[in-house]
Specification:
alpha+beta, two-stranded antiparallel sheet, about 60% helix, about 15% strand, elongated
Length: about 100
Amino acid sequence: MPSFQDFICFQIGIAARTMQKYYNAKFSGYGLTLAQSWILFALYINDGLGVKGLAEKLGLDSSAVTGLIDRLEKEKLLERRVDPADRRAFQICLTPKGRKLAE
């Protein structure tokens, strides 16, 4: 009987955690986590996305994206703006500080 450690899904999980740990250490010098950097990079390419659009681009749940946005907004790296097409929705936009960091 094979060990659970031999399953490819287990090995991929180890590789993913190793890579995430590596990049979190790299981005910590900028005060970011890897996931937060994805938000900044996605907005750098397509500023003004909504939470749902960001979640789709990043393959994350909207609730996870909302938490990341909250932390980045607290650091003044992005801001929520009312969507002119739908006052109930928000566009997520980089601040000048967030744009500079993404660059």
